[in-house]
Amino acid sequence: MDPVLPMPRGCDDRCMSVLPSPEEKPRAVRTMFDRIAPRYDRLNRILTGGSDLRWRRELVRRLAIRPGDRVLDLACGTGDFAAIAVAAGAEVVGLDFAGRMLALAQRRGVPRTEWVQGDALRLPFADVSFDAALCGFALRNFAALPPVFAELARVLRPGGRLGLLEVDEPANPLFRAGHRLYFRRVVPVVGGWLSGDRQAYRYLPQSAVYLPDARTLAGWLREAGFRDIRKRQFMFGAIQAISAVRA
Ligand SMILES: C[S@@+](CC[C@H](N)C(=O)[O-])C[C@H]1O[C@@H](n2cnc3c(N)ncnc32)[C@H](O)[C@@H]1O
After folding, report:
1. Ligand 1 centroid to residue 174 C-alpha, Å
2. Phi-psi bin for 77: left (phi > 0), alpha (psi -120 to 50), beta?
3. What are phi and psi of 179, to 5 degrees?
4. How much is the pLDDT for 145?
5. Whose CA is nearest to atom 15 of ligand 1?
6. How far apart are CA 14 and CA 88, in angstroms?
7. For ligand 1, atom 26, which residue shows the shortest CA distance?
8. Which residue, 34, 151, 166, 244, shows the most beta carbons closer than 10 Å to its own?
9. Which residue among 101, 141, 211 has the greatest number of ligand 1 atoms within 8 angstroms of its CB, and so is best to mutate?
10. Distance from the alpha carbon of residue 96 to the mean position of ligand 1, in angstroms
11. Helix crossing, 51-62 with 25-47: angle to 10°?
12. What is the pLDDT of residue 120?
């Protein structure tokens, strides 16, 4: 892949960084997801024990997505969030820059969906054109977060709801130790083995270093124009679900 970088925070000497340079990140991320697209859903189900669908449904419920809502699934990948929002009655636009992930989303044949290839940092949508937006496990993958939040604020109507799902780290030391063992040691081995792409599943835990702490994230959301920012955790704190409202 890309030039090996300095060791990220949280990596010890057994963990050589596979993180791309900032300039290379968008291309590296896009080609990685294009590469793993056919195995992406299966690996998600296996590595989360099927719980990711429950977290997604819970966030869609919390945003009160209802019939008639126009919802953006940002960095939609293979369209898991989109399918759940459609089941709640919404019309969904899924956007992703990886063509092979999008092709799989399209192949699901979910009604009331439109799939758009594009960049989260420059959304090809009019101002105030969505009632809600969802984004699953993609924050780590963007080149920068404030411009993405600014774009989300631009395309959501006032009162529009935002839901973000991401990995997190448990606060409890015991759970944190167990989580580190699983996320940093088991996931790269099992994910690499099952997907045949060791680099992608080493990137997964290492990319957590791109996530800011909760206070910084909330600050960026507020600066972009969001209020009522709330965080909930699943899986003993290993997963975070953030909701916010466009001011
Ligand atoms: C971990 S996957 C998550 C997919 C899906 N949201 C889910 O919950 O399963 C991250 C996705 O973000 C997409 N992505 C990353 N950066 C992007 C960008 N700047 N614009 C659009 N899509 C992006 C990748 O192509 C990939 O499909």
Report:
1. 31
2. left
3. -65, -40
4. 98
5. 141
6. 45
7. 77
8. 244
9. 141
10. 6
11. 110
12. 98
SS3 233: strand
- For residue range 33-61, what is the model confidence (pLDDT) as tens digits? 999 999 999 999 999 999 999 999 999 99
Phi and psi, residue 72, nearest 5°: -100, 125
Of 121, 124, 145, nearest in space to 221 by CA: 145
- What is the per-residue pLDDT across 177-194, written as a single tens digit (0 to 9) for each? 999 999 999 999 999 999
Retrieve residue 103's tokens: 């092709």
Domain ranges of the chain: 25-41+49-170+208-246
Residue with token string 């466009």 = 246
Q: 8 pLDDT exceeds 50? A: no
Judging by beta carbons within 10 Å of its beta carbon (0-12, 13-18, 19+), is residue 78 exposed, middle or buried?
Answer: buried
Ligand 1: residue whose CA is nearest its atom 16: 142
How far does residue 119's CA lie from ligand 1's centre (Å)?
10
**Tens of pLDDT, residues 183-240:** 999 999 999 999 999 999 999 999 999 999 999 999 999 999 999 999 999 999 999 9
Pocket test for ligand 1, best of 137, 165, 167 (most atoms within 8 A of CB): 137
Give φ, ψ of 42 to 5 degrees.
Answer: -60, -40
User: What is the dotted CATH code of the domain comprising 25-41+49-170+208-246?
Assistant: 3.40.50.150
